[in-house]
């Protein structure tokens, strides 16, 4: 009888142990999925282009994280694949990649003269860990947008819809959110004072964390904006508000 009890006890301990291990594994998977893979959809993008071509300009102060961002827009990147430390960009870095039937051409650089072309979005990166440089980033962003709107103003002199540049969406990226002491995306958007041009461009904010290994976030949201953010509808009343 006592021998039978001891066998039963062993079975209970064994089943209990397996149950605990399963529960722990499930919790681990859920937590891992939440923290490590909240960009899950990004890794399921169909990395194939097509007949439509779009140009996206990626700008910001040197070291803001532009090249790291573009490293992530590559076919078949896996979540756990290690990203090399990007070399400083000299001149212009062009990354071409097909996504969901559209050919995207990303132009990365620190200078504004490269971006005055037919583009579908401006992505502006800010290093969230450098609040002391926010005013410089803001000045550079405003200089870019002024130069951009000046071109639009020249095109819209007749107050007819311009050919290409009008109302291009602007996506401000609060980069390096994984690093300690980083300012939150809302504070960065505020620091960029984008209200001053929000009547001419719809402005979005995305926080990204793109460390060399694992734990990436923000890529899917950024992709969605690049792919679907609408160009602001032409408003003839805007003609007079832009100084030519
Ligand atoms: N931890 C972390 N490091 C980043 C992130 N984005 C960029 N970096 C690092 O910041 C440095 C400058 O990035 P880079 O992309 O070259 O800046 P760029 O001059 O704007 O192209 C590099 O050492 C990157 O590895 C990020 O989201 N997290
Ligand atoms: Mg670079």
TrEMBL record:
KW Nucleotide-binding (keyword) present: yes
Binding positions (GTP): 60-67
GO molecular function: GTP binding; GTPase activity; metal ion binding
Pfam families referenced in this protein's UniProt entry, alphabetically: Arf (PF00025)
Transmembrane segment boundaries: 12-31
SUPFAM superfamilies documented for this protein: P-loop containing nucleoside triphosphate hydrolases
Key words, A-Z: GTP-binding, Magnesium, Membrane, Metal-binding, Nucleotide-binding, Transmembrane, Transmembrane helix
Binding site for Mg(2+): 67, 89
Keyword Zinc: no
Name of the protein in question: Uncharacterized protein
Organism of derivation: Dreissena polymorpha
């Amino acid at each position: 009888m006592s021998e039978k009890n001891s066998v039963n006890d062993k079975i209970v301990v064994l089943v209990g142990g397996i149950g605990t291990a399963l529960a722990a594994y499930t919790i681990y998977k859920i937590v891992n999925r939440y923290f490590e893979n909240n960009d899950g959809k990004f890794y399921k993008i169909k990395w194939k282009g097509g007949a439509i071509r779009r140009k996206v300009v990626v700008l910001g102060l040197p070291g803001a994280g532009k090249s790291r961002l573009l490293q992530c827009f590559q076919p078949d990147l896996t979540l756990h694949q290690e990203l090399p430390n990007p070399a400083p960009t000299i001149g212009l870095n062009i990354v071409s990649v097909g996504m969901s039937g559209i050919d995207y051409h990303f132009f990365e650089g620190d200078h504004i003269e490269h971006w005055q072309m037919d583009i579908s979005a401006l992505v502006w990166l800010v290093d969230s860990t450098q609040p002391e440089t926010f005013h410089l980033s803001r000045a550079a962003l405003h200089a870019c947008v002024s130069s951009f709107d000046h071109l639009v103003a020249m095109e819209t002199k007749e107050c007819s819809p311009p050919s290409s540049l009008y109302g291009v969406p602007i996506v401000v990226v609060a980069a390096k959110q994984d690093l300690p002491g980083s300012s939150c995306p809302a504070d960065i958007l505020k620091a960029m004072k984008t209200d001053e041009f929000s009547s001419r461009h719809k402005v979005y904010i995305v926080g990204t964390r793109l460390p060399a290994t694992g734990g990436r976030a923000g890529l899917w949201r950024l992709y969605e904006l690049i792919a679907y953010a609408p160009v602001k509808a032409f408003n003839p009343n805007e003609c007079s508000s832009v100084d030519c």
